[in-house]
Design brief:
The complex is a heterodimer.
Chain A lengths: L3 E10 L2 E10 L3 E5 L6 H9 L6 E6 L2 E5 L4 E2 L7 E4 L11 H10 L10 H7 L15 H13 L5 E5 L7 H17 L4 E5 L2 H7 L2 E6 L2 E7 H5 L2 H7 L4 E12 L4 E6 L3 E6 L8 E7 L3 E4 L10 E12 L5 E8 L2 E8 H6 L7 E6 L3 E2 L2
Parallel strand pairs in A: 3-9, 3-10, 7-8, 8-9
Antiparallel strand pairs in A: 1-2, 1-4, 4-5, 5-6, 10-11, 12-13, 12-15, 13-14, 15-21, 16-20, 17-18, 17-20, 18-19
Chain B lengths: L4 H34 L4 H14 L2 H12 L4 H8 L9 H27 L1 H9 L4 H12 L1 H16 L3 H6 L10 H10 L3 H24 L9
Helix pairs in contact in B: 1-5, 1-8, 2-5, 3-5, 5-8, 6-7, 10-11
The chains are: A alpha+beta, B mainly alpha.
Chain lengths: 361, 226
Amino acid sequence: MSDVIEARLRVAYPGFSLDTELRLPGRGVTALFGASGSGKTTWLRCVAGLERGCRGVLQVGGETWQDDGRGLFVPAHRRPLGYVFQDARLFEHLDVRGNLLYGFKRVAAAQRRVGLEQAVELLGLGALLERRPAHLSGGERQRVGIARALLSAPRVLLMDEPLAALDHRRKQDILPYLERLHDELDIPVLYVSHAPDEVARLADHLVVLEAGRVIASGPLQDTLARLDLSLALDADAGVVVEGRAGAHDADYGLLRLELPGALHLKVAHDAMAPGRPLRCRVLARDVSLSLEEPRDTSILNRLPVRVVDEAPAEQPAHVLVRLDAAGTPLLARITRYSRDRLEVHPGKALWAQVKAVAVLA
Amino acid sequence: MPLSAADLTAIRLTLELATLTTLLLLLLGMPLAWWLARTRSRLKGVVGAVVALPLVLPPTVIGFYLLLSMGPNGAIGGLTQALGLGTLPFSFAGLVVGSLVYSLPFVVQPLQNAFEAVGDGPLEAAATLRASPWDRFFSVVLPLARPGVVTAAILGFAHTVGEFGVVLMIGGNIPGKTRVVSVQLFDHVEAMEYAQAHWLAGGMLLFSFLILLALYGRRQHRPRWS
């Protein structure tokens, strides 16, 4: 069976049009990234069958949900999906348990994949079951919304900016739950967001939308390191580095992050089981370049790199340089002045100093 | 006993009429209000205006046209005769039909407002949780619109109890069949029986006040029916 999501979807409204053709992996988290108005929520609503004006072809896991050429349209309630809305949209007349069981009761017992207890445990809802939605915090509402969607036995989980309405602390509360979903359940997730940090932390595959068009679609690391797209992220341009946990230096509280090519970074982190995958974010503005290996410096992380190519940055005095550290892509934002002084050109070997590494998981 | 047997008969008849009318209006008004709340049809304005007509028309105008159309040569009259039911004027059934028209906006408009207030959000959420359109209506819309349904029932009932002009036009004044409280009150006044009239009028006043108190006294939900 084909484990893939294929979508050719079009929407045309006065002043806005969406025209996309995407082939997405049927596993892991696919992030749809774009500014507000780029059409990412409309696209997600098309997949759910909620957008009246949507035309095209949609196949999920070998099942056709829409094919206007054949006059086929599966209504939303017959599509085995879960949808987490930005504003949770809990049923105010039901308590948390009633909300959780709403979809669960409507799925044949044989098709259920997640039990009530498992969902409650996964999202930490044990103490909330008798509460009314009106008495929940924003973060709690979102967790109930996610659990409610999971309990309806979705074959794909659609999440529309589930964290956008939350403040920073609540976001940090929920992100670990989303990571658990990713790690513990084998349900593909389509995750709409305009926040680069969420995308970097959660996504495996990245789709970038701009004004209703797909401008990139590919694995997260490759897509993030693309210079043409880094412009869209301007000050947040950066890459995600994936490695495995290594030895831990308890005295200094530093963990070795083993990278391909016998390279490593040292990051401020607690000890972890060696070999566990770990994801970090390195922003282009935190990477500087030098010709020699800098030794007498407070900057801990130095990697030998080779220049791949460069592109103008959002600020005319800067350029973005794409680097390759034995297979790990990096971006550096340096001044044009330094670029010329170091004679940066494709293929040149340099040392990259990494000033800050943000551990994502 | 200050109320005569005739008064009690009139009260019983009025309550029967109001109860039956309210139940029928909820049944018929629900789909109409749902359609008005959800449709994007151009007919929405026309239908909405027709539903609201009884709010502004003098009851005698409604009664006059109902009398004609339910009569032997009218459209409704032709239908009821063809069905072997005779004609409706000067019967309890005729009063029920008249009350349905007369109280229609008082039931449909609160229902429509309540349905509109539910909005797309919960409906879309329910759809993504496998609920069919009928299922969504009964499991999400009705519970969320419950305050509006209660308002509609109370207003429909109270407004039917207060009916006079329409009754006089199509029902006349037949004891036990069409003589409702308002008509009975009118008779007392005509006959200069002011003591009797006071009991009925005072009773109506108290009843109406209690109804409105029930409506406005409910916390959080203020009626929005017009």
